Structure to design on (499 residues):
């Protein structure tokens, strides 16, 4: 236990990330604020697991965030049940695309960061505060991104002041951009966006919004080799979470299963 | 060269202990008590924002009495200790015992090596899966640590409150009974005209999902106290 004796103004304050980077820099893989550019060499990108399609969409009660479950190493499937969507606290969640290892580490670090701040300060960060802190952490990974270990999250949350869901997207430099309706990223992101573009309507009801999201993931899995579709044999379905004023909740697998069965029936009839 | 006065170590320790005790006794008391669903924490605290009871980790809470700036530092250090451990290992590896030991070390070292001891008395409590696995640790200004069962009291007139509770406490009380008992104990020994608005109440409720710590609002407290 470190009982600090330095001046409170030199204290890292309520950020776990800042505190960790001073006292335990080795615990941070790439998300290091002052890390120098690492040496060259061949890109390790082909040998590491990658996450694929994740998306977010606003609807009447808040925002939906979802992602497929497959990870690939080059042309091989490395995992069928990987989790890409994570609850961060009672009012926010992130989905990640890129190199699986650093992505999962970022999710864990950011979750700890939010909880740590809340406990020290006795109050949650504002949603803009959360989005900005995440931007700094993504920026810390820039040297690793040049090595091919790219991490790009989508951050969503419910904003109690505006009474609506909000979506933030990021680039590898830590650029933070707010989306107004929906967004999707990862290797199948473009295909999922096309579907959402056709089906999205402002102020959708939840069942309709969930259907749209699942259809977008289905289309992405058809067009992109890196995105996993619904696996009816093993019973593996995309993760879908809703974030509303009541908090973060999972859309049950049975419901997702039903929607996909209907969607597949419809597609069979149409072809 | 001036020769420093010789002070026998016994005298030095006694002086420090007296100094610390005086500081702690000036404040108000905080009670932690096991109830049906977990652990109840009640502090007589006129401030709304300067908390004496707070969350450390999933099932662990911290209670601090004495000098605010000092126990606030200890609280922050505890949260950092717990969050670091949970981040590097796993959430289930963060234990109240290891935290209480770390506090004991810090307080003990400060007491014997610094000029001024910390004027604090703290408690670390953790709710278990069943009431047999609840943990309550009380740690004194000199680092001495005691493992308590049922309830503990720190700060202010803690000994008087302990005596009051000793005959009246029963295991497995419902929340409203436990809260009313804590309130009575503080009223009868320390603050005769206690107002509910100045009570800071929180629980570690084992039935909650994930993080077990929850603060009770004044309305909830009123309802619980009067529902008897």
């Amino acid at each position: 236990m470190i009982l600090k004796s330095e001046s409170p103004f030199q204290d890292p304050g309520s950020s776990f990330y800042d505190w960790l980077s001073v006292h335990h820099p080795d615990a941070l893989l790439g998300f290091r604020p002052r890390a120098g550019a690492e040496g060259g060499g061949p890109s390790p990108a082909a040998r590491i697991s990658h996450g694929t399609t994740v998306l977010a969409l606003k609807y009447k009660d808040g925002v939906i965030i979802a992602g497929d479950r497959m990870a690939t190493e080059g042309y091989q499937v490395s995992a069928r049940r990987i989790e890409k969507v994570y609850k961060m606290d009672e009012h926010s969640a992130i989905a990640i695309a890129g190199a699986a290892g650093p992505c999962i580490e970022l999710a864990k670090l950011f979750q700890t960061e939010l909880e740590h701040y809340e406990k020290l300060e006795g109050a949650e960060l504002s949603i803009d505060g959360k989005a900005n802190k995440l931007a700094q952490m993504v920026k810390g990974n820039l040297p690793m991104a040049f090595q091919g270990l790219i991490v790009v999250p989508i951050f969503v949350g419910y904003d109690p002041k505006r009474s609506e869901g909000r979506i933030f997207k990021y680039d590898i430099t830590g650029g933070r951009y707010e989306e107004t309706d929906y967004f999707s990223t990862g290797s199948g992101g473009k295909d999922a966006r096309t579907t959402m573009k056709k089906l999205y309507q402002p102020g959708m009801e939840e069942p309709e919004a969930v259907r749209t999201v699942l259809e977008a993931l289905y289309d992405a899995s058809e067009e992109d080799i890196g995105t996993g579709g619904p696996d009816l044999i093993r019973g593996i379905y995309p993760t879908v979470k809703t974030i509303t004023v009541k908090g973060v909740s999972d859309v049950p697998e049975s419901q997702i299963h039903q929607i996909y069965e209907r969607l597949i029936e419809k597609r069979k009839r149409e072809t | 060269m001036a020769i420093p006065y010789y002070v026998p170590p016994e005298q030095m320790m006694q002086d420090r202990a007296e100094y610390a005790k005086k500081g702690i006794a000036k404040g108000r008391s905080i009670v932690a008590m096991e109830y049906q669903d977990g652990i109840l924490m009640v502090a007589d605290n006129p401030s709304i924002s300067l908390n004496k009871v707070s969350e450390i980790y999933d099932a662990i809470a911290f209670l601090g009495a004495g000098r605010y700036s000092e126990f606030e530092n200890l609280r922050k250090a505890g949260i950092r200790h717990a969050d670091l451990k949970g981040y590097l290992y796993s959430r289930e590896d963060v234990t109240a015992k290891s935290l209480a030991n770390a506090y004991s070390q810090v307080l003990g070292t400060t007491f014997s090596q610094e000029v001024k001891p910390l004027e604090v008395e703290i408690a670390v409590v953790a709710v278990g899966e069943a009431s047999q696995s609840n943990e309550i640790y009380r740690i004194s200004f000199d680092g001495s640590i005691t493992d308590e069962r049922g309830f503990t009291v720190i700060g202010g007139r803690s000994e008087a409150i302990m005596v009051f509770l000793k005959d009246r406490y029963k295991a497995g009380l419902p929340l409203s009974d436990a809260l009313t008992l804590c309130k009575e104990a503080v009223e009868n020994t320390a603050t005769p005209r206690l107002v509910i608005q100045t009570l800071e109440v929180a629980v570690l409720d084992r039935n909650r999902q994930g993080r077990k710590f929850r603060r009770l609002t004044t309305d909830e407290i009123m309802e619980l106290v009067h529902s008897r």
